[in-house]
Amino acid sequence: MLWLLISFILGIVSHIIYSKIKTSTQVSTDIPQYDHAIIIGGSISGMVTAAYLTKYFSRITIIESDDVLNDELMNFTPEELLNYRCRDKNPSSLGRSGVPQIYQIHLMAAGGQLILRELFPRLEHRLINKYNVRSYSLKNESRLVINDVLLNQNLTEDFKWLGIDRFTLEIEIRKELCLQYGHQIQWICNSKVTQLIVDQSLNTVNGVKYRSKQNSDAPTVDLCADFIVDCSGRNSPSMKWLNEDLNLIIPTEQIHFGCGYTTFVGERMKTGDSLLDSKPIIGCTANSPEKNNGWFIIPIRTIKTTNENSLGTISTIAINSNNSEYPPTDSFENLLEWVKDNLHSDFYTILKSTKETNGLKSLYY
Length: 365
Fold this sequence. Notes:
FAD/NAD(P)-binding domain; 4-stranded parallel β-sheet; globular; 365 residues; disordered N terminus; signal; alpha+beta
């Protein structure tokens, strides 16, 4: 949550500027009250922030380090997009070198889904109809064990789970953002923010300096705004800049507990166990320190197939690890043997019948 703290602090510092504007300017509530906002980082959090800020700012600039608006990513068909994601070896080849976790499983809470529906009313319909994703019943179509307790049996009401991978979701949100708010939002891609522009006498942040990533010798460009939000993630240098430029000391505490993920995408096949085959969503959390590994199977596409043994589902399959108890990642065969010896037999049964499509991807914190 470090980046949330950074965003909050930058917001407080920038608020000093536009709060003065607010007290002196009275305008209609349906007209943006302020001129310009800058968002550092154009991933999901940056885009959601930009969509919200269109209510209050006439212009919004998103500065993104990757080339996320390239024609290849924006114009892929759903089949091409899935194949592209599955065959590429690392986030850089996906055009997302700034998001190394993009291959891994991501869970968005119900509140997050409500926010997306509010900001992008057409998004869910497009995902379901364009990408063959499904909405699943958490009560009837999942088997989730949390701290050795089966979650489903305690649910008093059902929840809907939209099964899609982060890579596709991010691209489709970006398309919707451009369609709905393109007249207010400007993207500056392949660029890196290098410094804040501050007024030390007023203790305010007035803008940022940025330069092209493609040319390290390129001069920096000054960009000023009424409001700056850092959505660039856990490796953001904003805390360092605030300390250096404004002598703002931000108390932090880092906890290293050997967390990691090993993930691959696969087509689920029949196991011979009707109970397992009937649950598209299956998972078991780690329960450290006694049990340092958990596992999850999350559907991201439904497919049409003539293979009678296929369940017609492409899933992201992941093992999460704590206390540095990581599984082998040199081959799928070695991973399978490790799962047989260390994790629940249900997971091994599913894994050995799954058709791997994109190789093992690991991420360690």
